[in-house]
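Sample entry follows:

_____
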Amino acid sequence: MDEEKALIEAILFLEIDPIDIKTLARISGLSREQVEEVVSELRTDLDAAGRGMELVSVDGSIQLSPKRELWPRLRQRFGRKRESRLSRAAMETLSIVAYSQPITRSEIESLRGVSADTMIRQLLDRNLIREIGRKNAPGRPVQFGTTREFLQHFGLESIADLPKLDEIDQERFSLNG
């Protein structure tokens, strides 16, 4: 089992993006059940005190990542690309998309009260949002939703892990209000 664990750990280290169990099984030549068992053992090993890495779940896939508590010390050298800040307007637009998806540009603008072209373009460029379809309405406007990169950026496993909104914010993000 140690050899299989080493193999899975090496694959996870070399993969840039999160990877699902099925793909890990294909790459490693192990069965899905073996990979699930090895990943479970690896997660336990990495959770031990004194280890610098952890397995992070992102949208049903896993990724080897530095432990969250180490980021303040690593950020100076390794976090520049990852930590480039979003403006307040970009964060507001991203929040609207995250909590209201699928959502169109005009719906975003209606909620924000200002044009969203620049912010949407910026979020698309950073791969935090993407076009997910078209609304069945006149003109068939593009609808936007969040991406896997969004989940990674904010350390979420799924969109369901977003913080819950209070009543005031629920009303603010509602397209009906």
